[in-house]
Design a protein that fits this description.
heterodimer, A: alpha/beta, Rossmann fold, 60s Ribosomal Protein L30, Chain: A, 3 domains, 39% helix, globular, B: alpha+beta, Dna Ligase, domain 1, six-stranded antiparallel sheet, five-stranded mixed sheet, 20 strands
């Protein structure tokens, strides 16, 4: 049995590196971590991890300043070195924050290098907050389309949706750390099952049976439960997670991979019951792969991670931007504000009005998580 | 019941979150003839709660000054409305075991029951403002006037309105500061109901919901009496706020768009309908998707109504504990009547109909002066009607209100 790492976790760009370096200490040893960026100052702050500075000739150790072309060129220039990095890994997890130059420009080329190296590529990409501006949003959307074709699985984490998950009175930093925690938890849960010695171990290569082809719509969800019936609570949380219900998310999949991690007390029946809840919700008629792992540190906590893919659906005809109608569709008028004061508006400094544990001064559509989307 | 002698002039002041209105009328043959009306934006009140005393004081002062100028009469006595979250209602009961051998109830027995109900102390820090008569129960059967009837156990109940001491004190001292005495307080939702319903509707059963800018006050009538009332610190201002957050526009623009395009129902045809902020294609004009506006406004509006429904059901469960009461057309034959400024929102009645499952309409106050026949003036017009009646279901206290205050302030 080889104990060399079989999973490579790559953080790309400022946001990706930040996220990966924060979650790296909590990952099992089976995961090797690499950080890739052009900005030396970002790589310097992340101690103890393998860092790859790329595009030295292009940016002289600075950031990409939001330029897509720079990010793309930086990755392409270092292709041989990166190919060596990916060699021998059956699963490459790419974490990046889209919207800037490095993430948006470099993610797709990087994923394609990993694909060429024969790895299964699973990408986590965050979409910037709506109020970060139209340009970043557009760059992110375009990059997402490219990245989807180069990854076996693409998990899109909308910052807007994450902001909705945190408490109404939470700060902006809490919203961001919630994003970190969510991704870290998911990765930890995914990685633990590939650890030799797991209760029901899964070969990383087996993920290929779930994520068959690059570009298929990916379902990903994650839930945590605690106390008695923790596995069931976690399964339900994973079913109800708003990240599995975002716009464009799929609810039924053909192939499903369910991973349950729990403490020493977790029984097999618990794990199987959790799986049956997940299957009832998301399908998985074609293949269902179950992984289970016991981690004494978990105590009475149980984590459930769900990964699934349906077959690629034919893309709807590309939207043509014609005349006024196209302009309307792209209007940036739908906002998810996050900060307390923004959410409460003119009631910002008035006493809170609580009903059923909710601050009713916050707009109803935010509390109900109703996404206001322009009809296409 | 000894009626107060009616003054020949009545002045009412309705202090709302958005605007303060005042009306003076002369009473001729039991009818009110309007002498003057004034209206001002209220400052210093948010969600029905006073946050800036000085500002509120100034705006009420202006309203009274305006009123005196228009009506050419000095205001001496006023009725002031009470509404908002600091007003609470609860049921109080008084019991009298009939002493007579034949079980016939005398006036004294009846009075005894009423006294025992009214003797109940309000919770600490609150002042009892009104006792509103509910049907008397004689041997578990509701009766109209129990005097002269036969029975063993007479139960009299009232819907008692209490308010935080500080709030009452503040209102009275505000009036006194203008050399005006407060004649009485009127429950705003009851006033609005007086303006938009008639006695037969109250007799059958009707729920009046006054959706103002900052608060939503409701009152439910059953068999001609107030069964319960309540208030929620959510109102039309919240719809404006939601719109300004969702569309990233100023409060004023949001208010304007709300009046022109918002709706209590979100319909498919609204989606993709583009609307212009100003419509004159000038520089700085913005276009919006109407679907977004109706989505935001309908969610909030329907939520407000469902909060009211929930509160009503909670109250009904307390009052009719042990019996199952359904909030349906049988219980409320006259359905739901919406009044207040936010009742003007498009499709408001339809939304109420969907949520309550009973017929619903927007109530327009009945008043001689046509300029006040708008739902936002239901409060002030209704106060005038209630002041004119100054009779049941508002039951006068034995001790006048000023006596209570005199005790309170020792003057």
């Amino acid at each position: 049995m080889s104990t060399t790492p079989s999973i490579l976790l790559v953080g790309l760009g400022g946001a990706g590196c930040g996220m990966v370096s924060r979650i790296a200490p909590h990952l099992p040893s089976v995961v090797r971590v690499a950080l890739i960026d052009t900005d030396a100052s970002i790589l310097n702050t992340t101690e103890g991890q393998e860092a790859f500075q790329i595009g030295r000739a292009l940016t002289r150790g600075m950031g990409t300043a939001g330029e897509l072309a720079v990010g793309q060129a930086a990755v392409e220039a270092e292709e041989p070195a990166l190919r060596r990095l990916f060699n021998g890994y059956s699963l490459v997890v790419l974490v990046t924050g889209l919207g800037g130059g490095m993430g948006s420009g470099g993610a797709a080329p990087l994923a394609s290098i990993a694909l060429d190296a024969g790895a299964t590529v699973l990408s986590f990409a965050t979409i910037p907050f709506s109020h970060e501006g139209e340009r970043r949003k557009r760059q992110a959307t375009e990059a997402l389309e490219k990245l989807a074709t180069k990854s076996h699985g693409l998990v899109v984490v909308e910052n807007d949706l994450l902001a909705l998950q945190v408490e109404a009175d939470a700060s902006l930093s809490a919203a961001f750390s919630a994003a970190d925690e969510w991704i870290a938890g998911s990765l930890r849960a995914l990685a633990s099952v590939f650890t030799p010695g797991a209760l029901v171990p899964v070969d990383p290569a087996a993920l290929k049976t779930i994520l068959e082809k690059p570009g298929s719509p990916t379902l990903f969800s994650y839930g945590v439960g605690e106390g008695s019936g923790a596995a069931l609570i976690a399964a339900k949380a994973a079913c109800d997670s708003s990240l599995a219900h975002g716009p464009g998310a799929i609810t039924k999949v053909g192939s499903l991979f369910v991973q349950v991690t729990g403490g020493l007390n977790m029984s097999a029946t618990d794990a199987f019951e959790a799986v049956s809840i997940i299957r009832k919700k998301f399908g998985g008629e074609k293949t269902t792969l179950l992984g289970a792992c016991v981690n004494p540190e978990m105590g009475d906590r149980v984590e459930v991670a769900v990964l699934g893919a349906s077959l690629p659906v034919p893309k709807p005809a590309a939207k043509t931007k014609k005349g006024a109608k196209g302009a309307e569709a792209n209007q940036p008028m739908f906002v998810f504000a996050t900060e307390e004061s923004i959410r409460r508006g003119v009631f910002g400094n008035t006493p809170l009005t609580f009903r059923d544990g909710e601050d009713v001064d916050v707009p109803t559509y935010i509390r109900r998580s109703v996404r206001l989307t322009p009809a296409s | 019941m000894n009626k107060k002698p009616l003054p020949s002039f009545i002045t009412v002041i309705d202090i709302g979150t958005h605007k303060t209105t005042a009306l003076t009328a002369q009473v001729i043959d039991g009818r009110a003839r309007m002498l003057g009306f004034s209206e001002r934006r209220t400052d210093g009140v948010v969600k029905g709660t006073v946050i800036d005393v000085e500002k509120l004081h100034a705006s009420v002062h202006e309203v009274v000054n305006d009123l005196e100028r228009v009506s050419q009469r000095a205001v001496e006595q006023v009725y002031i409305s009470i509404a908002g979250p600091s007003v609470e209602g609860e049921r109080v009961k008084g019991i009298c075991i009939v002493p007579a051998h034949d079980g016939r109830i005398t006036k004294l027995d009846y009075q005894q029951a009423i006294d025992s109900a009214k003797r109940l102390e309000p919770p600490a820090g609150r002042i009892t403002l009104l006792h509103m008569r509910q049907p008397s129960i004689l041997d578990n059967k509701p009766v109209g006037n129990p005097v002269g009837q036969q029975g063993r156990r007479l139960e009299v109940s009232f819907w008692r309105i209490t308010m935080e001491e500080g709030n009452v004190r503040f209102r009275v001292s505000m009036a006194n500061g203008m050399s005006i005495t407060v004649r009485d307080f009127i429950l705003a939702s009851h006033a609005a109901a007086c303006a938009v319903t008639n006695d037969s509707e109250k007799q059958g059963g009707v729920c009046v919901i006054d959706i103002g800018a900052g608060t939503t006050d409701w009152v439910l009538y059953f068999k001609g009496h107030i069964l319960c009332s309540g208030s929620i610190a959510v109102g039309g201002e919240h719809i404006t706020n939601d719109l300004s957050i969702a569309l990233r526009i100023s409060r004023e623009t949001a208010e304007d768009l709300k009046h022109r395009f918002a709706s209590a129902m979100h319909r498919d045809q609204d989606v993709n309908q583009t609307i212009w902020k100003d419509g004159d294609k000038s520089v700085g004009d913005q276009q919006f998707n109407r679907g977004t506006i109706t989505q935001v406004s309908s969610l909030r509006y329907q939520e407000i109504l469902s909060f009211v429904r929930k509160d009503i059901i909670v109250q009904l469960e307390q009052i009719f504990s042990g019996h199952e009461v359904k909030l349906d057309q049988n219980f409320l034959p006259s359905g739901v009547i919406l009044t207040g400024g936010s009742a003007n929102l498009a499709d408001a009645a339809e939304a109420a109909q969907n949520i309550f499952g009973v017929t619903a309409r927007v109530g327009i106050p009945k008043f001689d002066n046509s300029s006040l026949q708008k739902s936002e003036y239901a409060g002030v017009v209704g106060m005038m009607i209630a002041a004119l009646e100054d009779a049941p279901p508002l039951v006068r206290r034995q001790k006048g209100f000023m006596d209570i205050l005199r005790d309170l302030f020792r003057f």
